[in-house]
Specification:
This protein is 19% helix and 30% strand. The chain is α+β, with helices and mostly antiparallel strands and 198 residues long. The chain has one domain (27-197). Strand 12 and strand 13 form a beta hairpin. The longest helix is centred in the first third of the chain and has 19 residues, at 4-22. It starts with a helix and ends with a helix.
């Protein structure tokens, strides 16, 4: 017996898979779960090698450096920077909305982030989206974004996913990343729906 609705879902999933493979220039570091220590040095991250170190001198080619014992801040290597909220021209990384384009048209900087309820402010107890400009090993400018889970305080922070475009000066769009639990619930709901119809 044919299930037209199930066939439509399978076709949609196949279309998403084809679209993802067509955009093969985006590198993903999924579930990287990089805890940011509450120290002056924080953690240094090299996106191309997907590695971290506790000091910049220990990690050649590092791109990002979140840190801070009394705040959440970003230090950046030369030629890099954290994307500010659209329309803002001073300060550090803004908490961005999915759909934000990261490109040369954006403003980039470093320093401490602001927590609060206004647009672009970072939020406690949720995933915050951030974006960056980095310098690749080919010396080209690359754009990327990531997700950071911030807990009850700004000292409870973990980078959960990182993405960047490998083609120099190519914009990338911040994409909403569902929480792993949400994906599992969707899968269970879908299976329950199929089973109920049988």
């Amino acid at each position: 017996m044919r299930n037209a609705r199930l066939e439509k879902h399978i076709a949609a999933a196949a279309a998403v898979a084809v679209a993802a493979s067509a955009n093969a220039a985006v590198v993903s570091w999924l579930n990287c779960n990089i805890a940011i220590p509450a120290t002056l040095d924080g953690i240094y991250i090299n996106l191309e090698t997907q590695s971290t170190a506790s000091a910049g001198s220990l990690l050649a080619g590092w791109d990002l450096n979140p840190y801070g014992a009394d705040r959440l801040a970003w230090f950046n290597a030369p030629g890099t920077g954290m994307m500010r909220f659209p329309g803002v021209t001073t300060g550090s990384a803004g908490s961005l909305a999915p759909g934000t384009t990261v490109s040369s048209a954006a403003s980039f900087g470093s320093g401490g982030v602001i927590f609060g309820s206004a647009n672009g402010n970072w939020k406690l107890n949720q995933i915050n989206y951030f974006a960056f400009r980095m310098r690749g090993s080919d010396n080209g400018t690359k754009y990327g974004f990531g997700t950071m889970l911030v807990g009850n305080t700004f000292l409870d922070r973990t980078i959960t996913n990182l993405y960047y475009e490998t083609t120099s000066l190519t914009p990338i769009v911040v994409v909403a990343i569902p929480a792993p639990g949400a994906l599992a619930l969707l899968g269970v709901a879908g299976l329950a729906g199929i089973r109920r119809r049988r």
